[in-house]
Amino acid sequence: MEIGMAQGRLLLLTALTVLAMVIAAFGCVSPAQQYIDKGNEYFGRGKYDEAIAEFTEAIELEPTNADLYYYRGNVYLKKGQLQTAVVDYDKAIALSPKMAMAYNNRGLAYAGQRQYDRAMIDFSEAIRQNPKLAVAYDNRGLMYRDKDEYDLAISDFTRAIELDPNLAKAYFNRAYTYNRMGDLEAAKADADKCIEISTDPALTKAAKDLRERL
Question: 176 is in which domain, residue-wise?
C-alpha cells in the first residue's frame, strides 16, 4: 500500500514538473513578439510607417534587444532615411557586436550617403563576423569597383557567387565589371546567368540592357 502511495506521489510530482516546464516555456515568449510580428507584416506589405511604429513599441518593451533596432533600421533604410537607419544599426551593434547583417546594412546606409570608406569598413567587418555572408562580399565588391580596383571587385563578386549561386545581382555586378575591364565574353556569360535566375524585374531589365550593349 505504501509503495502504491509512493508511486502515486512520484507520478503527481512528475506531472507537476512537466506542467511547470510547459508554463515556463510559454512564459518565455517575448512580450514584444506581437509587435515584431505586426512590424514584419507591415514591412512586407510596404507599410513602412506602420512597421516603424510597431518596432518602436517593441523597443519600448525590450530596449536591450539588438534585433529590434536592426529590424527598425531596415525599415528606415528601405524608406531612404539613411542617417536614421545608421543610428539604429549603431545601437544594434552596440548591443550585439557580432551581428554581421547590422554591419552589412549600415554599410549600405553609408554607401547611400556617399560615405564609401565607412561602407567599405562595415562590409569588411560583416565578412569578418560571418565569412559566409555572400551579400557582404557582393557589396564590398561594388566599393572596389567604384574605386577602379577591378581585380579585387571580381574576387569579391566571385566569392559571393560561390557562397550563393542564386545571388543574381552578383552575376550582374561581375558582368558590369568584366565589361569595364574589356572582357566581353565573360561579361556576356554573367549577364546571361543573371537574366536566367533573377526574380527581380528591375535587375532582369538592367541585365538585358547590359547584354544588348555587349
Answer: 132-214
